[in-house]
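Deliverable D2.4 — example input (structure tokens):
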């Protein structure tokens, strides 16, 4: 059946409307239903998560409660019946009842001894009637753990389900009993589960790890049954957590279930699906009625519209058919409406007129076109010949050019290229790169690509842009790129053409020259900075440490002496930090020179032991030295640097080790030849150890493993960094193996060490601090007044006369006039510096034999540096240390021992004890044994100055009351060290105190 245009338009439109509106209606319904489903699933899941979190937090808090209560002394005393008896247990029972009454959610709280016997309980009827030694919660707590039972059990008192939290009760590092709390599952569930509900009839319940449903008795169809009886229950138990849909009693249900931590319980939160989707089902009916009404109204409107349009269109179609038969004189004679269809009709009449005129013109133009075609064929033949000649000329230049020439489309594909471009990009021929995307052939950095695109986008060209690219084999090269944007006159499309020049050789020469100049400037700047920093920091430190040394000699008040000692210790700590920083800076600047010579490893180890002997004895550590048998006596090494490394490693080991031993070992293993071998030095300790994750950090500058260790032991984190750099400079490697809680082992492996063929240099004569010099004259030259004054005071105390000069010019004049026995010359001074002044003095016959000691804070200029000034007879670094000053002066001046009073020997208490002078010795012995001796051990774990002072005062009063003079002296010394916070003396006295009191008790009882 043939349909008119009206019905062809009307019928499909109505069908499309009906299908569209129906689809929209269905889609809207299912979208709302899906959104509501997700919302309900999320809501019940959030409720389940919130409930689990609340339960977990509540259980965690109860664990903290029972753990804290188990540490209270009342329960420990109740367990130790030999001391406190039944009274302590009664008090413990009262305490447990009070806790149960105050908190309300405990079914019972019970205290049991190590044998499982119940001693105290909030329910008094249980004590002494039940033994729990085989219960898991008791056994786990007895192992020293805070334990939460992982499942519910039936109570022995009634049939209720309960779970327990148990905690050990400690006494002197031993578990003497167990404190545990009992919680009723029903009470627990009602607290958290019963208030939960989604919608009007939603509910929640709990089932245990063995599948038993233990909560929400209102849900009679599931309460008290096994969850595995239901198919959805078996899935819940298998997966552990999630959201599930299932039917129960023909009712579809949403449920979210989550595991509750270590209790092995699962919480399920449920909502009825029909109740949730009732509003969506009502909306479905309304949606259908509205859709049907809209479709009917649109059908009526469309019918009227199509009728009004189809009638004039039929007239136009009739006219087109007539014109198509060749009747160009046809015209529409009906009245057309004033709309688009009417315009079409009037345009059709106009078109007919134009076609009639055009037909006549076309016939005339066909004759003219035949004549023009003949002329055009002749011109094309001539133009083709000219283009062929120009193409051959361009091809020769293109193929033989040194620059890489290219044409690239606006999409980035190579349209044309010469052999030079293929060669620059690393390809064998042009065919390998044609019609390929240029950025897939050449490795262009993203930044370079972006810059080139911006140039061509904004300026249509780029000229001489230099950048670093990569060939196809990833070989880098520098190039200069020039390109411009063009438009193809034939196709009208945009393309780019340009050339690439390889400038790698030129750029490498320029880069090398710039880097050389920058390196030279950096080295000069760093050297100058090191020299300035060393001088400027060490100059005030020189006065600080020097004057503290002078003050210490004259101090008699112990408190003031402690203050000066604190100044010296702080100053030396700052000096150590400065030395570490400068050492590290010199190593990084390449200015650390090694001085190799014969070194005796056994002598060096013995020296290390002597240096740390006092600290080792104070901490009661064992120092072990292991030397491989047959090790050569002398090796070619830098002794000062080896000593610096070992001092750092052994010092760290002693600092962090509280008990055990420090092992210093040396051994060899074969090297690359018979004359060479590898030297292995190791330092092992029994300290706290280092976590494996921190082993890569400890050798970094200013890095330490743990802020707690830094707080307790100090340090800058530079020592191991310097050790590593020094070992590497000596063709070696340093490594560390460590186990937390067991200790650490640092190992140094020096490669290709050779045996020394010369004797070791004779060690300089040791100079004691009690030495003085025969009278002589010393010239001190320094622009700093405080430094001159400090040195003068030190030298005067050494029996030397001193004259002073402020600069090198004054020093030269005074040296010629006074002829001093020795000159101490600062290097950096105004007017004339020490280097120039020394050169003048050494060139003058009248002063060339006077020894000159350089005084400098610039460690860069000390011996070992190629730029060190020449002409000095010795060096003194700032700050000046008394030992170094004595050692240098003793090389040029005669010494004599100073007369000193003999130091008093340590007090021997038993030798000084006179029993006949003691008042009531029997009472004193009892008092020492029952009161003072037990309190000695209170200071083992913590040192509180106020408690030490209180103890010392009580001990002093007792000693004075009984006229026990040796104990009076000891007490006074303990109080004096506490008053000035001398921790070392305090610890020493406290360590000796128990033995002293025991000896006194034994002596007093023996004499009686």
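Example output (designed residues):
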């Amino acid at each position: 059946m043939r349909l008119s245009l009206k019905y062809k338009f009307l019928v499909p439109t109505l069908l499309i409307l009906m299908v569209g509106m129906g689809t929209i209606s269905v889609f809207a319904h299912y979208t709302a239903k899906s959104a509501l489903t997700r919302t309900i699933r999320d809501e019940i899941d959030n409720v389940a998560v919130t409930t689990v979190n609340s339960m977990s937090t509540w259980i965690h808090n109860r664990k903290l409660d029972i753990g804290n209560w188990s540490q209270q002394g009342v329960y420990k005393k109740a367990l130790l019946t030999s001391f406190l008896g039944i009274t302590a247990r009664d008090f413990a029972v009262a305490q447990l009842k009070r806790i149960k009454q105050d908190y309300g959610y405990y079914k019972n709280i019970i205290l049991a001894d190590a044998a499982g016997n119940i001693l105290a309980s909030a329910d008094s009827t249980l004590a002494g009637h039940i033994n729990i030694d085989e219960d898991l919660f008791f056994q786990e707590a007895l192992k020293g753990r805070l334990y939460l039972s992982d499942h519910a059990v039936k109570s022995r008192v009634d049939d209720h389900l309960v779970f327990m939290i148990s905690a050990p009760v400690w006494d002197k590092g031993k578990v003497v009993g167990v404190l545990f709390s009992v919680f009723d599952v029903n009470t627990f569930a009602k607290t958290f589960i019963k208030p939960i509900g989604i919608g009007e009839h939603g509910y929640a319940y709990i089932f245990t790890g063995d599948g038993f449903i233990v909560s929400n008795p209102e849900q009679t169809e599931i309460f008290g049954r096994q969850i595995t009886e239901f198919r959805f229950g078996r899935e819940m138990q298998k997966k552990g957590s999630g959201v599930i849909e299932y039917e129960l009693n023909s009712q579809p249900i949403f449920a979210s279930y989550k595991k509750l931590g270590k209790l092995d319980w699962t919480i399920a939160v449920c909502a009825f699906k029909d109740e949730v989707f009732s509003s969506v089902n009502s909306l479905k009916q309304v949606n259908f009625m509205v859709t049907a009404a809209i479709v009917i109204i649109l059908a009526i409107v469309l019918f009227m519209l199509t009728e009004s349009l189809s009638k004039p269109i039929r007239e136009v179609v009739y006219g087109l058919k007539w014109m198509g038969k060749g009747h160009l004189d046809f015209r529409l004679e009906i009245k057309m409406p004033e709309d688009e269809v009417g315009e079409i009709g009037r345009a059709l009449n106009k078109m007919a007129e134009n076609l009639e005129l055009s037909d006549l013109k076309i016939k005339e133009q066909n004759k003219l076109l035949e004549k023009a075609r003949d002329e055009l064929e002749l011109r094309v033949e001539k133009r083709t010949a000219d283009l062929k000649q120009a193409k051959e000329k361009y091809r020769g230049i293109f193929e033989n050019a040194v620059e890489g020439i290219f044409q690239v489309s606006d999409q980035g594909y190579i349209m044309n290229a010469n052999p030079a471009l293929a060669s620059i990009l690393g390809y064998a021929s042009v065919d390998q790169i044609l019609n390929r995307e240029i950025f897939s052939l050449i490795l262009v950095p993203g930044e370079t690509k972006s810059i080139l695109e911006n140039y061509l986008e904004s300026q249509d060209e780029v000229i001489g842009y230099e950048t670093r690219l990569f060939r196809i084999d990833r070989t880098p090269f520098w190039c200069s790129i020039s390109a411009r944007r063009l438009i193809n006159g034939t196709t009208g499309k945009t393309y780019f053409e340009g050339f690439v020049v390889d400038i790698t050789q030129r750029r490498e020469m320029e880069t090398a020259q710039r880097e050389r100049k920058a390196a030279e400037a950096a080295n000069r700047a760093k050297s100058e900075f090191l020299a300035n920093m060393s001088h400027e920091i060490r100059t005030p430190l020189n006065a600080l440490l020097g004057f503290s040394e002078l003050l210490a000699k004259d101090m008699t008040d112990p408190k003031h002496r402690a203050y000066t000692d604190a100044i010296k210790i702080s100053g030396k700590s700052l000096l150590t930090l400065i030395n570490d920083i400068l050492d590290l800076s010199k190593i990084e600047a390449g200015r650390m020179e090694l001085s190799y010579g014969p070194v005796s490893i056994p002598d060096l180890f013995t020296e290390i032991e002597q240096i740390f002997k006092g600290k080792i004895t104070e901490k009661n550590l064992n120092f072990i030295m292991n030397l491989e048998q047959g090790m050569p006596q002398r090796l070619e090494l830098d002794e000062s640097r080896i000593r610096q490394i070992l001092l750092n490693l052994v010092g760290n080991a002693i600092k962090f080790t509280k008990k055990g031993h420090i092992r210093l070992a040396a051994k060899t293993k074969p090297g690359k030849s018979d004359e060479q071998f590898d030297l292995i030095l190791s330092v092992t300790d029994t300290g706290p150890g280092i976590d494996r994750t921190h082993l890569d950090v400890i050798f970094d500058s200013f890095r330490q493993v743990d802020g707690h260790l830094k707080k307790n032991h100090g340090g800058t984190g530079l020592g191991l960094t310097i050790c590593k750099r020094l070992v590497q400079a000596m063709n070696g490697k340093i490594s560390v193996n460590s186990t937390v809680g067991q200790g650490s082992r640092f190992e140094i492996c020096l490669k290709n060490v050779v045996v020394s063929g010369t004797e070791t240099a004779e060690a300089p004569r040791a100079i004691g601090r009690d030495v003085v010099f025969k009278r002589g004259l010393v010239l001190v030259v320094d622009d700093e007044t405080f430094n001159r004054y400090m040195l003068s005071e030190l030298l005067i105390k050494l029996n030397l006369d001193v004259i002073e000069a402020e600069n090198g010019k004054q020093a030269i004049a005074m040296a010629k006039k006074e002829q001093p026995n020795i000159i101490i010359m600062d290097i950096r001074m105004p007017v004339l510096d020490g280097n120039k002044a020394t050169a003048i003095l050494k060139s003058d016959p009248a002063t060339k034999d006077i020894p000159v000691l350089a005084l400098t804070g610039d460690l860069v200029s000390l011996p070992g540096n190629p730029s060190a000034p020449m002409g000095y007879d010795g060096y003194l670094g700032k700050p000046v240390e008394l030992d170094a000053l004595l050692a240098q002066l003793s090389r040029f001046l005669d010494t004599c021992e100073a007369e000193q009073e003999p130091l008093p020997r340590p007090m021997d208490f038993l030798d000084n004890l006179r029993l006949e002078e003691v008042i009531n010795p029997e009472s004193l012995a009892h008092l020492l044994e029952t009161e003072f001796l037990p309190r000695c051990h209170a200071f083992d774990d913590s040192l509180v100055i106020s408690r030490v002072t209180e103890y010392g005062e009580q001990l002093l009063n007792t000693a004075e009351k009984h006229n026990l003079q040796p104990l009076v002296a000891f007490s006074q010394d303990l109080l004096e060290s506490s008053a000035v916070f001398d921790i070392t003396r305090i610890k020493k006295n406290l360590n000796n105190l128990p033995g002293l009191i025991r000896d006194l008790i034994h002596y007093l009882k023996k004499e009686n």
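The first strand starts at residue 108 and ends at 113.
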